[in-house]
Design a protein that fits this description.
The chain is mostly helical. It is built from 2 helices and no strands.
Length: about 110
């Protein structure tokens, strides 16, 4: 009688373990499909973002150039720092589309 209880408990534990293992495998298959879907969706968003990046960069550069000009004409002492910030931002936003296309493989 004692052996029957132990056998029943062991068989129940093994059944639950087997059930949990197959559920994990099924979940991993679902995750793989979901990650592929997310990857394809992100790649579809990259092209419109890249086409908008250069006009946005041009607008930011024009506004920054006006800011530097106004500081220069007013005799502000931190004109050089503002100009360096503008140049650094322009370099970053100019390289951003290239980096995005290289990162996403487009």
């Amino acid at each position: 009688m004692q052996h029957a209880r132990i056998f029943t408990r062991v068989s129940i534990c093994l059944s639950l373990l087997l059930l949990a293992g197959t559920t994990t495998v099924m979940a991993q298959n679902d995750v793989s499909g979901a990650l592929d879907n997310v990857n394809n969706t992100l790649k579809s968003y990259v092209a419109p973002i890249l086409s908008m990046a250069y006009p946005i960069a041009a607008i930011i550069f024009i506004v920054g150039a006006i800011k530097v000009y106004r500081k220069f004409t007013n005799g502000d002492p931190d004109v050089a720092m503002t100009a360096f910030q503008l140049i650094g931002g322009a370099i970053f936003i100019g390289l951003l589309p290239t980096l995005l296309s290289a990162f996403f493989g487009i």
